[in-house]
Amino acid sequence: MIKIGNIELPDFPLLLAPMEDVSDPPFRALCKEQGADVVYTEFISSEGLIRDAAKSTMKLDIYEKERPVGIQIFGANLDSMLRTIEIVEQSKPDIIDINFGCPVKKVVSKGAGAGILKDIDLMVSLTEAMVKHTKLPITVKTRLGWDANSIQIVEVAERLQDVGCKAISIHGRTRAQMYKGEANWKPIAEVKNNQRMHIPVFGNGDVTTPEKAIEMRDIYELDGAMIGRATIGNPWFFREIKHYFKTGEHLAPPTMTERIEAARRHLQMAIDWKGERLGIVETRRHYTNYFKGIPHFKEHRLKMVTTDDAEGVFAIFNEVIEKFRNHQFV
Fold first, then answer.
1. Mean pLDDT taken over the chain
2. Which of 32, 93, 112, 256 makes an SS bond possible with 329, Cβ 3.0 to 4.6 Å?
């Protein structure tokens, strides 16, 4: 059994990574239903929260059915981060996660996200202060280092643990790599194999197949997998991995009925949560994967991503069900 603070999780839990404009409540709900053991919010700016910026405060919405759920925050200013904790606590998450890994320029340029990898002492002192400021478990998501010449992740992880961090998720790339090249899990395994480490060490990056998840578990011996991009438009990925763990066999792809039902529910929940316009626009990125591998689907997908009213999109879903009713996926 794996524990984050007092939160008990199954062996080798699967975590939905925090992703901007992706891991919102509608998508988290779908992933939870399909077997995600822990879900995380989109990352939230500490500066945005303390200024009461609408987009930031909206991301604090969490629901009972999501638990255990972590709220992820980013920032580099101690006072702002401590004030943010007080705001976040009001949403009653199970976990507060600090983003020390986002490679995006607008975040890094403020010294936040992966930008803090240039100042490990600040990273550690900020984590320590936040641990002391809340009774909720503080966890960290980070990268291997700023670049290939500055990888000190074994030492960094140990220092974060020693100031009270309850779990660490490590993306197997440096900031300089962004999302290019292959993720390197070997340094993450070195963190796990450090005899002084006793908190969970989760791997992140390039878990794109059930076989990859098995590799992370059995060869690299990590405590769990945090999965991001492979889940977009594919909440079934969690159940596919768990089925593979149990049986060694691949689960059949979701039927067309399941795909349409997920897309329909996703869109409806998104509209209910953020309004029709945003709900429609921000759900579009999922449609490519919802209907991946289905031949002759391009024209339907194009209509889905260019239709601007909810009634129209739902009509396309109905049209697709009728047309593909006898398709091999049904």
1. 92
2. 256
64 neighbors 93 (Cβ within 8 angstroms): no
Categorise residue 199: left if φ over 0, alpha if ψ from -120 to 50, beta otherwise. beta
Share of the chain above pLDDT 70, in %: 98
Judged on CB neighbours under 10 Å (0-12, 13-18, 19+), 209 is: middle
Q: Which candidate in 16, 102, 170, 269 is catalytic? A: 102
Second CATH level (architecture) for the domain 256-323: Orthogonal Bundle (1.10)
Is the alpha carbon torsion for 270, 276, 279, 283 positive or negative?
A: positive
Q: Which fold has domain 2-247?
A: TIM Barrel (3.20.20)
Q: Which two tokens stand for residue 66?
A: 């999501």
Q: Where are the domains of the chain?
A: 2-247, 256-323
Q: Which of 194, 143, 129 is nearest to 172 (CA)?
A: 143
- Reply yes or no on whether 31 is catalytic: no
- 256-323 shares the fold of 2-247: no
Burial readout 99-132 (b: 16 or more C-beta within 10 A, e: otherwise): bbbbbeeebbebebbbbbbeebeebbebbbbbbe
Q: What is the C-alpha to C-alpha distance for residues 70 and 48, in angstroms, rounded to an integer?
A: 18
Determine the pLDDT at residue 40.
97
Q: What is the DSSP letter of 17?
A: P
Answering whether pTM is above 0.90, one says yes
Residue whose C-alpha is closest to residue 211's, from 222, 219, 201: 219
d(CA 256, CA 294): 9
Give alpha helix (H) positions in the chain.
25-33, 46-50, 54-58, 78-89, 105-108, 120-132, 153-162, 186-193, 210-218, 237-247, 256-274, 276-283, 287-290, 298-306, 310-323
The residues near 55 (Cβ < 8 Å, ≥ 6 apart) are 48
Q: Report the alpha-carbon distance of residue 106 to residue 112 in Å, rounded.
A: 9
> Taking the CA atoms of the chain, what radius of gyration do you get in angstroms?
20
- Yes or no: say if 160 and 140 are a contact pair by the CB < 8 Å rule: yes
